[in-house]
Recover the amino acids of this structure.
């Protein structure tokens, strides 16, 4: 009888964990992390990118999360933080958003939000930025 109870508990536990298992979209995760990396690398870490890549990283994060943060997208220079603390705060908020939404968000949803944002801001070139365009700054 004891073995039957153990087997029942094991089956019950497996059923519980399989139902509550988080299914992250790995392509979405990679693209989202790529945007975070670009934002982080081009601020205070000795990397540079073309304006489009830097701007698109921010715009994708904003489109998906709805959080614009402290970055001045249209200032001079474009899409640059004045203070490291503001960058750290925004990166933390975007990372927290991902953790809270990773089980329910897909690349398809993200692409849909980016397409909608592209229409709103009037930037037909807006797409996921390419990480390879970020380079080490050489003096």
């Amino acid at each position: 009888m004891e073995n039957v109870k153990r087997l029942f508990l094991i089956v019950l536990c497996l059923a519980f964990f399989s139902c509550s298992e988080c299914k992250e979209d790995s392509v979405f995760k990679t693209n989202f992390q790529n945007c975070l990396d670009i934002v982080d690398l081009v601020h205070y870490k000795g990397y540079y990118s073309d304006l489009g890549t830097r701007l698109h990283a921010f715009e994708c994060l904003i489109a998906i999360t709805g959080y614009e943060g402290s970055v001045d997208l249209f200032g001079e220079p474009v899409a640059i933080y004045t203070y490291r603390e503001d960058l750290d705060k925004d990166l933390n908020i975007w990372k927290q958003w991902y953790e809270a939404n990773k089980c329910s968000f897909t690349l398809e949803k993200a692409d849909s939000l980016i397409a909608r944002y592209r229409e709103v801001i009037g930037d037909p070139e807006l797409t996921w930025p390419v990480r390879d365009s970020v380079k080490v700054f050489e003096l």
Summary: The CA atoms of residues 49 and 134 lie 5 Å apart. Helices lie at 2-19, 26-41, 51-65, 84-101, 107-121.
